[in-house]
């Protein structure tokens, strides 16, 4: 039902300078796989087959990663290293990649708006922020859980998790009524509130299902926190009409946009690999 997934990947990734000076943050590897590949695999598992990437200047490595490298293929053909390309070959074979650029970094809301030329105005679509790396060792991936929920509620869905008081200022925070276990009808959303201002500790992470009317809402939204067009503000207008669900996802999320979260994810996947040996 949800065929397209948008990957806003135009940010500067300043927290990883100098690594991100000439290389996109989304290409930083956790073990041997770039962050964005984890996101694409999660989207594939959720049933998406069109991956729509919002890029910017200096992001060509993403386009090249999701394309065939004939030289490399030739070089490693029939060697033991060939199997290391199985995952990416499978992605290239089964998905279509489309790209557009966000010329100015005017915020996540603006990046998503730019995606309208890729995802269209007819159908709901998923959004994955690849620097939020999500895993669920006990079952379906986070996006698949959300796609299943969409089948029931048919409205915008944001994935949320509890964060400590001292972290609420880093996230969009929601307020709402629990309508079933872990599912909330959102009544209000605030982008990066101060501790005293936050109505709850439920923070939105980088997974969304959006209905195409969001593009109209973004168009009407004025720049918010930090002068950026915030997707939280556009969604808040939808929420006031009872059209946004917050879902406390099952699994774990690593904030790979921060050095601490990135190291945590690396250790997690390294330990998994060691245990499997
Ligand atoms: P971040 O807030 O993590 O910003 O964006 P950033 O620029 O990537 O990183 P720092 O803070 O400078 O280290 C969250 C997500 O939204 C995308 C980013 O690429 C990232 O996936 N984004 C943000 C855009 O695509 N465009 C924007 O204008 C802002």
UniProtKB/TrEMBL annotation:
One GO term in the molecular function aspect is: UTP:glucose-1-phosphate uridylyltransferase activity
Family matches, as Pfam families: NTP_transferase
Limits of the Nucleotidyl transferase domain: 9-267
Entry-linked InterPro entries: GalU_uridylyltTrfase_bac/arc (IPR005771), NTP_transferase_dom (IPR005835), Nucleotide-diphossugar_trans (IPR029044)
Q: Does the keyword DNA-binding apply?
A: no
Asked whether the keyword Nucleotidyltransferase is assigned, the reply is: yes
**SUPFAM superfamilies attached here?**
Nucleotide-diphospho-sugar transferases
**Similarity remark:** Belongs to the UDPGP type 2 family.
What does the protein in this record do?
May play a role in stationary phase survival.
Return the protein name.
UTP--glucose-1-phosphate uridylyltransferase
- Please tell me the species this chain comes from: Sulfurimonas aquatica
């Amino acid at each position: 039902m949800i065929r397209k997934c948008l990957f806003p990947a135009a940010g500067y990734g300043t927290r990883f300078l100098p690594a991100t000076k000439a290389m996109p943050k989304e290409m930083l590897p956790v073990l041997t796989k770039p962050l964005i590949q984890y996101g694409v695999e999660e989207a594939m598992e959720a049933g998406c087959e069109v991956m729509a990437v919002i890029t910017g200047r200096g992001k060509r490595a993403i386009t090249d990663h999701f394309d065939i490298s004939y030289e490399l293929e030739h070089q490693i053909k029939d060697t033991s290293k060939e199997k290391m390309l199985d995952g990416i070959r499978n992605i290239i074979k089964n998905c279509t990649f489309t790209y557009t650029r966000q010329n100015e970094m005017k915020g996540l809301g603006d990046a998503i708006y730019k995606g309208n030329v890729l995802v269209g105005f007819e159908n709901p679509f998923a959004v994955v922020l690849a620097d939020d790396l999500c895993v669920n060792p006990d079952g379906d991936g986070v996006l698949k859980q959300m796609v299943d929920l969409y089948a029931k509620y048919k409205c915008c869905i944001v994935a949320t998790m509890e964060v400590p008081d001292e972290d609420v200022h880093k996230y969009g925070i929601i307020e709402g009524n629990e309508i079933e276990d872990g599912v909330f009808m959102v009544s209000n959303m605030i982008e990066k509130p101060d501790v005293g201002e936050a109505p709850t500790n439920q923070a939105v992470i980088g997974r969304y299902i959006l209905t195409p009317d969001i593009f109209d809402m973004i168009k009407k939204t004025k720049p918010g926190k930090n002068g950026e067009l915030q997707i939280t503000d556009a969604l808040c207008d939808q929420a006031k009409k009872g059209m946004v669900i917050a879902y406390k996802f099952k699994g774990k999320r690593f904030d790979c946009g921060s050095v601490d979260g990135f190291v945590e994810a690396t250790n997690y996947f390294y330990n998994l690999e060691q245990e499997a040996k």
